[in-house]
Design brief:
43% of the residues lie in helices and 18% in strands. It is an alpha+beta fold and 195 residues long.
């Protein structure tokens, strides 16, 4: 009888925790500006005309470049931006990096690539991230979110996560999880129009 009562109490407590987590996630998403419009997948949004795509105004943040210099997101205004949050311990992050390198080599002067390492200082450090980039000989720009400012502003809870931002500074789409080269190209097509 006592075990049944304990089980009921634990089940009720678990339900309350799940509900609170869902509520907190919703509030964090609203606060960060990453509402459901931007959180929809690139696949869903790329099927729409660009005029029909919901746009979310982005928030500025500061990261550091590979030399330790501070860089602000708003420094990149005027060109589309692809922001990719990653970590060296993340297998899916590593699997999609060759596609990002390929697109960076193709579009690098037309689109800003911000490959942002989520650098927590324990599981992920600047040194471990730099080591991976050097070993793989990637040339795309790497930035370090050592204060987790960008990650917190945009509610990044899963790696990798990619944001597609148009030249006016509006978020167009977000892809959570590893994306293929084809899906990366669809995201690029949403934010970049060849002249």
């Amino acid at each position: 009888m006592k075990n049944k009562k304990t089980l009921i109490i634990l089940s009720a407590a678990f339900a309350v925790i799940i509900a609170a987590a869902g509520f907190a996630y919703g509030k964090l998403s609203e606060k960060s500006g990453m509402q459901n419009n931007l959180a929809s997948t690139v696949e869903e949004e790329s099927a729409k005309d660009n005029e029909d795509i919901p746009k979310v105004e982005m928030t500025d943040f500061t990261v550091t470049d590979i030399d330790g210099n501070s860089v602000n997101f708003f420094d990149f205004e005027g060109k589309p931006v692809i922001i990719n949050f990653w970590a060296s311990w993340c297998g899916p992050c590593q699997m999609e990096m060759p596609d990002f390198e390929e697109k960076y080599l193709e579009y690098g002067d037309k689109i800003h690539f911000m490959m942002i390492n989520v650098t927590d200082g324990s599981r992920e450090t600047v040194d471990t991230a730099k080591k991976l980039i050097a070993e793989k000989e990637y040339t795309f720009p790497v930035y370090f979110d050592t204060q987790l400012e960008a990650s917190n502003i945009y509610g990044i809870y899963s790696l990798p996560t990619t944001l597609f931002v148009d030249a006016q500074g509006y978020g167009i789409a977000q892809a959570t999880g590893m994306i293929s080269g084809e899906l990366l190209q669809k995201g690029i097509d949403m934010i970049y129009q060849a002249e």
